[in-house]
Design a protein that fits this description.
The complex is a heterodimer of chains A (357) and B (227).
Chain A (H helix, E strand, L loop, with lengths): L3 E10 L2 E11 L4 E5 L6 H8 L7 E6 L2 E2 L5 H8 L2 E4 L10 H11 L4 H14 L15 H13 L5 E5 L7 H17 L3 E6 L2 H7 L2 E6 L2 E6 L1 H5 L4 H5 L6 E8 L5 E6 L2 E5 L5 E6 L6 E3 L9 E12 L3 E9 L2 E8 H6 L7 E6 L5 E2 L1
Chain B lengths: L1 H40 L6 H18 L3 H12 L14 H37 L4 H11 L1 H16 L3 H7 L9 H11 L2 H29 L3
Classes of the chains: A alpha+beta (357), B mainly alpha (227).
């Protein structure tokens, strides 16, 4: 079952092509990541692999067998070898235990088996002790971990993860990422995962594909795709605002990173030594006056360049020699603040917006 | 004297509970499955014809949810009256006629509320269940289970509407003392007769019932809203 092949796949929704001639295969035990901006078709592609949707044309093969969409029995049997985690966890109005036991119950497992397996998987996602809580009363991060436990409890051959960490705080992100690598390493579970976080892709993926506007633009190892990135891959935001520096854990439990030119960035993670860090352009707040705020990082700079991205603008802000930030801002705020090239601005971002690999 | 006062009040209260309770019970047996089926059908209409049917169906159900009870009473009266098509059943001015009237009223309410409860969870829950390895049937059961608060709400709302309804049962039941007189119709009569003690006592009972119903409803909704 685990070898997944997607061949010449097209998917059309009311006249719009969501996926165009997508073609790739994932080997047994591989951790394959689909990277790309929002709206690229990543979720649709995963849903097709999970047999929740039929392609308009093209095919999906599991272990060389073409999926037969006319046989409901085959579909159920195939789905039972997979586990899927949606970007936003959909949990049932019942206890955490019952939520995680559900996939086993529909497979007709015995009670003793169920108790044992649920217990093990809840330990894996660090939710032991949560058994009797109502799943809908959990925080977003805990809820997502329940969803992951649901997908893992059956020990699937193939695990599909749709942006599993997109809406989580750093602590939950690291639990989820650890779980993913653990399962891939220890159980040799084949994993197909989507993300728009390039750092995550670099950390986890054996191989990845860059999906843009429904097409695979580039496929291979991280180096293949991102060392000599095409213009398109480059424009995919996350290569902006990347800095290297020396990190020191502070007394408050955050990290202060010296990025040179006398500049220091404060981050919510705890790390010592050389780090590569990244600040998402959309997380940076721009103002014309120094802001008094709870955000830990404030820098003064000048607008060097303005690029029009449609409904938003990307500004290049220089805060020191060779230290440029890309800041994303709406056209409306840009006009309201009466900004232009050469304007003096203040950039503010939270310590928790600073990501690292 | 005092004894007969309370005896009559008890008789009236029990009849009200019996009529509205029976109507809602039968209404739930009919309305819940239909509402569930309509709820499942939502979202699936991609073709224009399906959409049209869907829109028409919902509009009709919404209209019937707000059906004026007097009109229902009138229709039931015309059906059951001696010269009417069902006159031979001899049901006019009986508790059965009142149950029929309230049944016609509550079925659309139960269908409508159940439909939206099922419809609101159908897509997400069904897909999640399928992705976790459920068969279509197993997934459908889970959808119903997840919509249970909505189904319960529909029954409570229907009972609330039935117990406080007056026009329909007045026409179909005839408001006959010791036979078809309910809390609401008795209040009308006693007020007209100037028996305000009786009217107010009955009113207090009705009000407490309405409060109890709303209390349960609020608790149910608070429990269901823990998302």
């Amino acid at each position: 079952m685990p070898t997944v092949e997607v061949r010449n796949l097209y998917k059309e929704y009311s006249g719009r092509d969501i996926l165009k001639d997508v073609d790739f295969s994932v080997k047994n035990g591989e951790l394959f990541i689909l990277v790309g901006p929002n709206g690229a078709g990543k979720t649709t592609l995963l849903r097709i692999v999970d047999l929740l949707e039929e392609p308009t044309s093209g095919m999906v093969l599991f272990d060389g067998q073409i999926v037969d969409y006319s046989s409901k029995k085959d579909m159920v049997a195939l789905r039972r070898k997979m586990g899927m985690v949606f970007q936003r966890a959909i949990l049932f109005n019942m206890s955490v235990f019952d939520n995680v036991a559900y996939p086993l119950k529909v497979r007709g497992e015995g009670e003793r088996n169920i108790n044992q397996k649920v217990k093990e998987v809840l330990e894996l996602v660090q939710l032991n002790g949560f058994e009797r809580k109502n799943a809908l009363a959990l925080s977003g991060g805990e809820g997502q971990r329940v969803a992951i436990a649901q997908a893992l409890v059956t020990e699937p051959d193939l695990l599909l993860l749709d942006e599993p960490t997109a809406n989580l705080d750093p602590k939950n992100v690291s639990i989820v990422e650890d779980t993913i690598s653990h399962v891939n390493r220890e159980r040799q579970t084949t994993i197909i995962m989507t993300t728009h976080n390039i750092f995550q892709a670099e950390n986890l993926a054996h191989r990845l594909a860059f999906l843009n506007d429904g097409k695979i633009e580039s496929i291979g190892t991280f180096q293949d795709v991102f060392e000599k990135p095409s213009k398109l891959v480059k424009s995919f935001a996350k290569l902006e605002n990347v800095f290297y520096g020396i990190s020191k854990i502070t007394a408050e439990g955050t990290s202060a990173i010296d990025i040179g030119n006398g500049l220091q960035i404060e981050a919510a993670f705890k790390k010592n030594g050389t780090v590569r860090l990244h600040v998402p352009p959309e997380d940076i707040i721009l103002s014309t006056q120094p802001l008094i705020s709870s955000a830990r990082n404030t820098f003064e700079g000048r607008i060097m360049q303005i690029s029009d991205m449609g409904h938003v603008l990307k500004l290049k802000v220089k805060i020191a020699e060779n230290k440029n930030f890309t800041v994303q801002i709406t056209k409306r705020s840009f006009n309201e603040m009466q900004l232009s090239i050469g304007s003096k601005v203040y950039m503010v971002f939270k310590a928790s917006s600073v990501q690292t690999s | 004297m005092i004894d007969s006062f309370w005896e009559e009040i008890l008789d009236i209260t029990l009849l009200s509970l019996k009529v509205s309770g029976t109507a809602v019970l039968i209404g739930a047996l009919i309305g819940t499955p239909i509402g569930a089926v309509f709820g499942f059908r939502q979202f699936k209409g991609k073709r224009t014809l399906m959409r049209f049917v869907d829109v028409m169906l919902k509009s009709v159900i919404n209209t019937f949810m707000g059906l004026p009870p007097v009109v229902v009473g009138l229709v039931v009266y015309l059906l059951l009256t001696q010269s009417g098509p069902l006159g031979w059943l001899g049901l006019l001015y009986t508790p059965t006629a009142m149950i029929i009237t309230q049944l016609i009223m509550v079925v659309p309410i139960i269908i409508g509320v159940t439909m939206s409860a099922v419809g609101s969870v159908e897509r997400a829950i069904r897909e999640r269940a399928l992705s976790l390895g459920a068969t279509e049937t197993q997934a459908a059961w889970l959808v119903l289970r997840e919509a249970r608060m909505g189904v319960l709400t529909s029954i409570i709302v229907a009972f609330g509407a039935a117990i406080s309804e007056v026009g329909g049962i007045m026409i179909a039941g005839g408001n006959i003392r010791w036979w078809t007189r309910t809390l609401t119709t008795a209040i009308v009569t006693e007020t007209e007769l100037g028996n305000f003690t009786m009217a107010l006592t009955l009113g207090a009972i009705l009000l407490s019932m309405a409060f109890a119903i709303n209390l349960v409803l609020t608790i149910v909704q608070l429990k269901g809203a823990r998302r």
